[in-house]
Amino acid sequence: MHGIPIGLWDRSPSLPIPLDILLDVVQHLPIQTIMTLRQTSKAFYAVTRLRSLWALLLRTHVQEQNIPIPHLNGRLLDFLSASELEQLTCDALALRSNWANPNPDPKREVDFYKPTEPNSRIIFMQFLPGRQNRWLISVTMTVQPKKFVIQCWDVAIPYPACIAELTHMDGPYGGIVINDDPSSPAIIAMQSAQTEILTIDFDEEDPESAFVPLGAIDGVREVHLLSGHTLVTRRPGDGGEVGIWDLNDLREEKLQLVNPSLLQNDRCQAMLLRDDYIVVMRQQTIEFYSTVPRQNIIPTLGAPIAYPLSQHRFQWRADTVTMSEQVSWHAAHSCRPCPINIFIRFGSIYPWPVNILHHFVLAPNPAYVPGRETSLYNLPYLSQPTPVQTIGSPVRLFGASTVALGKYGTALWLDSHTEDWLGPSDRGQRLAGKLVTVAGDPSSVNWQDNAKASMVFRVREDDMWTKVAMDEESGRVAVGHVSGAITLFEYA
User: Fold this and answer.
1) Which residue numbers delimit the F-box domain (predicted)?
2) 161-211 residue pLDDT tens
3) Coil, helix or strand for 286?
4) Which residue of 187, 256, 305, 310 is 20 to 30 Å from 485, comparing CA positions?
């Protein structure tokens, strides 16, 4: 107890409250009240310096509330001192207070990287998960000459610097996906004339040599998901089979996902992979598959085939979909699946999507038995997503519309909503967001119609933004411009 024996505390005539009871009381107090209590006496000063108290406060005030912890940088909580745990607790609550403010206040704002070629624009941005929360991946497209530049930025230094750069000019380019597992050496999968698996040498002094190839798959494929040592692709064209690959053996697919009730050219919009199942969101359906390979009933050449265990069909076709599992302390400690947030902007009969973001939740199946194999009789989620809210988010004709969704429940988007600050206008953009909190029980979800953004991070009077990325743990937001420049906001 860091110098305060329990028996000595319990025998104190001025404070007869047993220490364990005092800790039970203090954990329910606001942090600022605890800081005030620290100044009232030497005894309370000593108690509020206990490591056990700050471990308890970090858990109850931060972790159990599913609040990200900034500045952790991969350190293990079990090896941190009382003062370090106190600092992490205060930093996490300060970031959440600023982040959830109707107008979050950036502690730092910096513009960096502007290509020298004209007609260059940012077409992709994403923070690398983990890895000390310091790396941002961007892709810049230049029209003349036609090329794509993939870059990795160190954003933890005062002025972000490019530490890795790869220029793609020859052959088709179909995009990249980032590995959601920070422990995997494979960081990026790129779609071109072949599917390339790349890692990054963060210690390489020459940025043009820092992207290191790890392997490749011949043929043109769409890359949709990279998770650990698993890659998920889709063949373009009428067949459109979805294939699951093991990066340790790229000679052939490990499994094919086929839905006989659909046209297989119905493109994939989002995917989420777990131990023995995958959730696939297409333009109008959401499907659940087992990823355990089994021998085909009818012997065929090629990889084993998996058919949907369940599926749900939406009434309208989606224009864009963003899907993310939401961190849940209680679900993780009960070995239950975490809820999955889905944000959809549906298409319309016009050349632009509808002016509404639809928020759905895939709720965990109460009958699911953890530890048993996922099957038709043991599904981890209910098949039908639960509608939670609709959020007004107007987009003009040809206007930029992009959504980023974080695992701690932050939805962040670009739209053309200008009425609140500029009035009716044919130009202008808003960087807005909303914190979503979902429960595992679908019956406890309260429908909200015509909800509004709860946070407005920034507005501008022109249409220069194209893409947005965020890292909830570090409190960073990055916005890409049509000029190829990037603006970084830090809120921690």
Assistant:
1) 11-57
2) 999 999 998 778 889 999 999 999 999 999 998 999 999 999 999 999 999
3) strand
4) 187
Q: What is the pLDDT of residues 84-99, one digit of tens each?
A: 999 999 999 999 999 9
Give the integer Cα–Cα distance in Å for 43 and 19.
11
CA distance 90 to 87: 5
Report d(CA 49, CA 322) in Å as an integer: 43
Number of CB atoms found within 10 A of residue 31's CB: 15
Q: What is the CA radius of gyration of the chain?
A: 25
Burial of residue 50 (CB within 10 Å: 0-12, 13-18, 19+) is buried
User: Which tens digit of pLDDT belongs to each residue from 33-49?
Assistant: 999 989 988 888 888 99
Distance CA 396, CA 355 (A): 9
Mean pLDDT across the stretch 102-108? 95
Q: How far apart are CA 288 and CA 379, in angstroms?
A: 8
Domains, the chain, with CATH or none: 6-99 (1.20.1280), 170-313 (2.130.10.10)
Cα–Cα–Cα angle for 310, 323, 488, rounded to 5 degrees? 170
Are the CB atoms for 71 and 88 separated by under 8 Å? Answer: yes
Q: How confident is the model at residue 450 (pLDDT cuts 50, 70, 90)?
A: low
Which tokens sit at 332?
């993780």
CB-count burial class (<10 Å; 0-12, 13-18, 19+) for 92:
buried
Task: Decide: 48 and 38 in contact? Cβ < 8 Å.
Answer: yes
pLDDT higher than 90, residue 303: no
